[in-house]
Amino acid sequence: MSSLADLERILGITFSDKSLLQRALIHRSYLNENPDFPLPDNERLEFLGDAILDFVTAENLYNRFPEMREGDLTNLRAALVREESLADFARALDLGQYLYMGRGEAESGGRERPAILCAAFEALVGAIFLDQGLTVTKDFLNRLMETKMRRLAQDRMEKDPKSLLQEVSQGKWRLTPVYRTVAERGPDHAKEFTVEVLIGGEVYGRGVGHNKQAAEQEAARNALSKVLAEG
């Protein structure tokens, strides 16, 4: 098992109380085989981390998408904090190799089991909060979740780019995108429309379609690619 100092370097966080970090990594199977070990398992920290994850993720989404409806916010939060997603975050940190785990559990693949990784990640969040406070915890989570959040935004962009562009534009600049038709070509039965979308007077995207709605969606999709690339 690698050292806690190695994990601190990966996290970019130096713990004041190293025992908190250690506790976050103790699976109950380790204590079953080592009953005299002086620290408890990570389940209480897991409970705390679960609540913090919900709060930080909800706040991030609320600020990032100020026009998004409650149901959509709930769905995005659920996608970010579900077991599979949290296990992925744990894997990104190589958290499995740092776990204190019983030999039998480890030999049966416990270090890669999603439920165990998810619980360990939640416990780690709880430990970071207790040791470093809320600001550091939020910075850590928001940095780690950024790629996943962009991917979820990309999925939504494919489904309804106009709505998402409005949410992003309102959140970033407090501006509403404006669409204008710049060209119409072809006969009535096969029209082709070219539409631009402007934010604050600047053209952010252009789209072409056989009706204005399709052209606007394509313009919004192209604008979103530009906006998200800018960060």
3D structure, described in words:
There is one protein chain. The chain has 231 residues and is mainly alpha-helical. The protein is 64% helix and 10% strand. Strands 1-2-3 form a three-stranded antiparallel β-sheet, covered by helices on one side. The longest helix has 26 residues, at 134-159. The chain is elongated. The protein starts with a helix and ends with a helix. The mean pLDDT is 91.
Quick synopsis:
With 231 residues, this protein is mainly alpha-helical.
Termini separation: 37 Å
CATH C-level class of the largest domain is: Mainly Alpha
Largest sheet: 3 strands, antiparallel
Radius of gyration, rounded? 23 Å
Derived structural class:
mainly alpha
Keywords:
mainly alpha; three-stranded antiparallel β-sheet; Double Stranded RNA Binding Domain; single chain; 231 residues; 10% strand; Ribonuclease iii, N-terminal Endonuclease Domain, Chain A; 11 helices; 2 domains
